[in-house]
């Protein structure tokens, strides 16, 4: 996040954004949020329910708007797909055995790059060529992500968003 926060004064308070139309406070949906058309009231109600349910679209915004599900079913499908990816990651780390020599490490890197690259940098130690990941912490990390998705799915099942569909 250093590149995103560069030049930001950390001591200043966050400025709350106001709607240019009515002057009410606006919700921070994130840089990856693409707003619906102004007169599309049904979509705006859906966005409101997404926000109430705690779903926002925060990242650096470099790649433009991210995936925004258009209805409840699409959102649940997306979350379940993400959960399956997290389960796959956790399964990899649960059964992982660290390679012992340089040849095995190189072979391991080429075979498992998609798993090794998705671990957050704070779980990695060493240099780029002699990287090491704490396996137990990686398992805990992915378990936490799975639990977050489960909590979000539970929250969605109880929220008003489950009663609303756009398409």
- Secondary structure class reads mainly alpha
Which shape, going by the Cα principal axes? elongated
Query: Helical element count?
Result: 5
State the separation between the terminal residues, measured CA to CA: 35 Å
Strand content: under 5%
Secondary structure blueprint with pairings:
Layout: H1 2-5, H2 41-52, H3 72-94, H4 102-116, E1 124-126, E2 131-133, H5 135-158
Antiparallel strand pairs: 1-2
Helix pairs in contact: 3-5
Q: Can you walk me through this structure?
A:
This protein is mainly α and 167 residues long. It has helices at residues 2-5, 41-52, 72-94, 102-116, 135-158; strands at 124-126, 131-133. A two-stranded antiparallel ribbon has the order 1-2. Helix 3 runs antiparallel to helix 5 (135-158). The protein is elongated.
Q: What characteristics describe this protein?
A:
2 strands; 2 domains; two-stranded antiparallel ribbon; 167 residues; disordered N terminus; mainly alpha
């Amino acid at each position: 996040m250093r590149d995103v926060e560069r030049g930001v004064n950390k001591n200043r308070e966050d400025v709350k954004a106001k709607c240019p139309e009515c002057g009410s406070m606006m919700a921070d949906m994130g840089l990856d949020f693409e707003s619906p058309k102004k007169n599309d009231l049904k979509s705006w109600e859906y966005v409101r329910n997404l926000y109430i349910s705690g779903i926002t679209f925060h990242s650096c915004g470099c790649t433009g708007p991210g995936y925004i599900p258009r209805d409840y079913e699409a959102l649940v499908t997306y979350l379940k797909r993400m959960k399956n990816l997290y389960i796959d990651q956790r399964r990899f780390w649960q059964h992982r055995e660290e390679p012992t020599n340089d040849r095995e490490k190189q072979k391991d890197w080429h075979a498992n790059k998609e798993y090794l690259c998705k671990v957050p940098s704070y779980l990695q130690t060493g240099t780029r060529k002699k990287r090491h990941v704490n396996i137990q912490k990686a398992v805990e990390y992915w378990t936490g992500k799975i639990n977050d998705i489960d909590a979000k799915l539970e929250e969605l099942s109880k929220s008003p968003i489950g009663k609303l569909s756009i398409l």
